[in-house]
Amino acid sequence: RIAMRLITALDLSYSATKSLDLYATPGPGPRPVVVVLHGMNETRDLWTPFATAVAHGGAVVLNVEYRVDELARPGGLEDAACALRFARARAPAYGGDPARITLFGISAGAVYGALVALAGDEFADDCATRGVSALPAAFVGVAGPYDPTLVASDPRRALRQTDPGRYDELDPFTRLGGNPHLRVLLLHGADDAAVPLEASSQFYQALTDAGYAATLTLLEGYGHELP
Q1: Pairing label, strands 183-189, 213-219
Q2: For 69-91, how does the pLDDT look when each residue is reduced to its tens digit (9 = 90+)?
Q3: 0.90 surpassed by pTM
């Protein structure tokens, strides 16, 4: 079977300082849209194979570069929200359905993803696209340290004492209740030594208790990674 050639649009500016790559199969839509947030100490280039594979599966995929190194600051949240607004406004030109946007994040990207999936309209900053919602229809989080207290190296931990307001802003549990129709899939490796499974199981329980349609899937034989 010969893979269909993808339409690619690289280095699209979605804010004053950040860009993303877009991949889509040719032909009319509407097809689902997926926005990808990489993990800490990664760049979007590492996730190009994943993004193109999902695009070949029939989605319009936006692979995002963002301020992941600012986990203790709101820069990454602003970037992720801007990327979602860009997706909602621009993906239809490539056959994307603005009503079917999934936000995907791994590790630190899952934390940003959870926050923005629940409360994206609260973050605006210097988006290239304005006047549209930053809330996705679905969120997929892989191995996210959603609770800042569960990982000793998490830079958000110190904020609990020094800046409680900022700590709450970066804690997904404080955003529960936002975007009530959000569908959530949490994935976590059974052998993850970097982020304990408890991080996903606690967040899953909190989501279901708050009435969200959520699923938690354990990845047997995997660590802090995506199969």
Answers
A1: parallel
A2: 766 567 889 999 999 999 999 99
A3: yes
